[in-house]
# Entry
Amino acid sequence: MTDPRQPQGAGLSEAQAIEQAKQGDAEAFEFLYNLHKRRVYSLCLRMTANTAEAEDLTQEAFLQLFRKIGTFRGESAFSTWLHRMAVNVVLMHLRKKGLPVVSLEEATEGDEDTPKKDFGADDPVLSGSVDRLRLQHAVDQLPPGYRSIFVLHDVEGYEHNEIATMVGCSIGNSKSQLHKARMKLREFLKASRAEKAGKP
Amino acid sequence: MTCAEFQRELPEYMEEGGNAELQAHLKSCSDCSGLVTSLETIVREARELQASEEPSPRVWNSIEIILRQEKLIREPAPSGRRSILPSLRQRWGAMAWLVPTAAALLVGAGIALYQQRPNGGRMAKTTTPAAATTVANGDASDEQLLQEVSVRAPLMRAAYESNLRDVNNYIRDAQDSVNANPNDEEAQQALMDAYGQKSMIYEMALDRSLP
# Structure
């Protein structure tokens, strides 16, 4: 598998593209966009569960990036910089819409939940693999607060301390919501499996 | 250890792995081990959602237009082509929509006069059927634009022709709105934007042909 950030034939490397974009080169901007568009768009789509909003947010994230590209000095990875910017754009959008990036109600659910004895009784399908579309659909059904934490941690790979800083919650809260998000997903996936099995 | 006790420890187990007591319970309890396996599957498969989707081309087109409007994209070296967009609106304010309309009329009139001259029909004779269709959808100046793109950026011709057809439809709709409500500023803006897009797709077609 080739690394897209390395020079490809007569093409640009990411570092070259960054320098050329600073000079206003249209091809360099497009190169950087093509290099990162899938990850940024997927992040926006997973966080919002809405394609139109995800496209608008992708556009906004890249515009913010390109407007500030002159200040990029390479101390951190360009992709890290961009993805953090995209996360901030999405979180800001969710806050403006009044959607909780961390669900307070869900976060305060304590450990007093009665443990369910049947939780792992029959998971043969989940023990193998989960169809991507089903998982995607299940993530879309999560409450926004759970969804944000799950996407940031399990999909995007951020650590709890980073998530806590980004969304403005405690590390414990982030861990708690992540666990509840995973449990919800498992419920959705089991329900989806049962529904599929019930179809003629 | 009971299943309830194990479940209380489950978040930490998933984060950092379990101690000997948790591991022992897992080995002896199929329910809890099934649950852990399910959650591990979800965690593993979640990574597959990263970069799994592709945005529509509309996103880059919008970004590129804004970057050009904000002059973050450096325009290529002067080649005789100039955008009709810059400062037009600043200079003409609400009447700016008249400028491209007038320009289009002037270009159209010029071409009509040119074609009436004895040797003026040569260009028309070289027009391809596709170009003729475009002219039918737009105006006479489209034929010239299409010819120029065909010569200077032959690989971009098909895409440009398609974009030109779309933008002509957009212009026609916007013009209808302005005709129906001459004082409607939104309709005027839409018409202005439509002509701006027409200029933009022409410039983009030629830019893409640069080495």
The radius of gyration of chain A is 20 Å. Chain A touches chain B through 57 residues (CB under 8 Å).
